[in-house]
Amino acid sequence: MSRLSLTSPYCLFLLSEIADIHLSSDDKPDMLHTHTYTLIAVTQGNGSAIVDGQRRRLLLGSCFMIPPHTILVTAAESGNKLRMYRLAFQVIPVESDAVPLGNTEQGLPLYSELSTQPFGQLKAMLRELHRHQNATDELTRFKQQIRLQEILYELYRQNDTQDLQIQSKEAVRRSIDLLHQEGGAQTSVNLLARQANIGVRQYTYLFKQLTGQSPLDYITELKINHAKRLLLISNDSLQQVAHYTGFKDVYYFSRRFKQIVGQSPKQYVSNTRREIRIVAFYYANVLISIGMLPIAANLTWWGGSYFLREQEEKIEDIGSTLSLEAISKLMPDLIIMNDSNLDDYASLSKIAPTVMIPYDSRRNIYEDTRLIGELVNKPHAANELQSRFEQLALEARRRLSSIVSLQPMAAIVRFEREGSRFSIFGDNYGRSGWPIYHGLQFRIPESIQEQLMDSGIQILQDIPLEKLPTYTENADFLFIIDEEEGTKYIAENPIWINLPAVKQGRVYVLDFERFSYFDPLSIEGQLELLTQMLLGEHK
């Protein structure tokens, strides 16, 4: 588990800022790219946080330490107001041989929930820190730094001995993700507790704290939702559906189904439309790619691809803030979500069968498509799309034979903060990485391969401009993602001008709408546009 050491003699901890954040369920989620270590502590209400794609539930008293270069998205739960302190501080080495932080055996756990008992004490300390944040006199500002040290001391004191409790909660979170992946068919509370390596009573307590339901009720609801989906999209017999969803026999399955749903399985099928109405909080672009048009989707966050405009015009945008009433009025037959909406799973399940596919940065787009295809009875769609892409890529490489035969290297870069910082991307994070590295088979610079892909990550952010040559000096081609800045702030900078790819005129600026999205249809379109660019046919 990565940790922040507080005992290194080579570092100083300096207060950057503290904010008192207020969010309602009507507000857009609050998005932050952290540049320093950041502590969040919830003082009111419920909500959720997405930390680099991984979801965390936020309750009164929840407290997390987030490292720099992390995407943090927080939102209030439906019908709730969320209030929290967000404290940012710098960790500054004072000697050149300072030991790097974040991977020590002792210290504050990063990403995991921290123990804060009594929470009122931490809340009071944060309130005092916030109250004096605008102080201008030297003595009070010095006292502010002392308050920061006291807060870090209290957190360290409690959490240096709370490692097992933190690990237990994380183990329960992982077991919930696995439940959704496996459908809950062949499991029990005892088995889940054993897998999490904790007792049944503790597992049940932590499970209910995270989901609001007991494990048994949650598993039963999951199995019934799985059964509803199979009844709607497959031709399986009742016996097969009962078996697949983990019920001991078809009679018990039918009885439990009627108790929970209010009608028998056969009545449910006859009363439900065969043309499936899908609401997709996530994966709408994948559904479109396999020919399944959802009736509604979160297009506010995930829509906008140039290549899907025609299809998205026919889809209702439900936005990023969940409205159970609005979803209910759509009368969906199936709801698809990722773990960013886990808090709402139980409520959504009462509207329609709800399937949660946890976000996993290790899956590629065709693995995502395979999961979705199996869900909607299109098991061969992923293979067909992948084969089509490979044929298109083969033809693209033929057209670019004079270039690709040299096995060129390429780097994908995005400039930020008026050119003072940049990000680099791998092959599995959108931004045309898949068509560039897999389609055209450009090679990845060794420094990017080592620091990203070999480390299991796909994006490295907030890198100082001075380090640009480290990642790009061996690149024959540079692809610049224009999400805000393009190259306008660095065009005259010597660091940029002296890069080999810049000197040779091998720089291509890629706009967001065409080149940043990551789904089977968009990457096919990106492959063709990239080919045209390299041939000089597209501007």
TrEMBL record:
Record bears the keyword GTP-binding: no
Q: Which GO terms describe its cellular component?
A: outer membrane-bounded periplasmic space
What compartments host this protein?
Cell envelope
Q: Which Gene3D superfamilies match?
A: Homeodomain-like (1.10.10.60), Nitrogenase molybdenum iron protein domain (3.40.50.1980)
Domain named Fe/B12 periplasmic-binding: residues: 275-538
Record domain HTH araC/xylS-type: where? 173-271
The protein's predominant localisation is other
Q: Which UniProt keywords apply?
A: DNA-binding, Membrane, Signal, Transcription, Transcription regulation, Transmembrane, Transmembrane helix, Transport
- Swiss-Prot/TrEMBL GO biological process terms: iron coordination entity transport
Membrane spanning stretches: 280-301
GO function terms (MF aspect) = DNA-binding transcription factor activity; sequence-specific DNA binding
Record's family?
Belongs to the bacterial solute-binding protein 8 family.
What this protein is called in its record is: HTH-type transcriptional activator Btr
- Organism the protein comes from: Cohnella abietis
